[in-house]
């Protein structure tokens, strides 16, 4: 039997809900800890886009005022 030895390996940890959220959005994961609430949904949307390191050219679209019913329908049904 061939046994592999991994010198620097660490045991895997199960992902709980907070870790999964932190992987998706560090800002969202910190909200309950900081107790921060966004006054403006556009602020939360922009920060979410920034967490995902979107290019600067895309950040102007991280605003709910940018979208209308027609544009949202277009993106959903592509």
How would you sum up this structure in a few lines?
With about 80 residues, the chain is mainly α. About 50% of the residues lie in helices and about 0% in strands. It comes from Brugia pahangi (Filarial nematode worm).
What does this 3D model show about the protein?
With 78 residues, the chain is mainly alpha-helical. It has one domain. Helix content is 51%, strand content 0%. It contains five helices and no strands. The protein has helices spanning 17-24, 26-34, 41-51, 56-59, 69-76. This is DB domain-containing protein. It comes from Brugia pahangi (Filarial nematode worm).
Please tag this protein with its features.
elongated; 51% helix; 78 residues; mainly alpha
Topology at a glance:
Blueprint: H1 17-24, H2 26-34, H3 41-51, H4 56-59, H5 69-76
Helix pairs in contact: 1-2
| Residue fraction in strands | under 5%
Helix content: 40-55%
Total number of beta strands: 0
Q: Supply the number of helical segments.
A: 5
Distance between the termini: 52 Å
Global shape: elongated
By oligomeric state, this entry counts as single chain
- The topology string of helices and strands comes to HHHHH
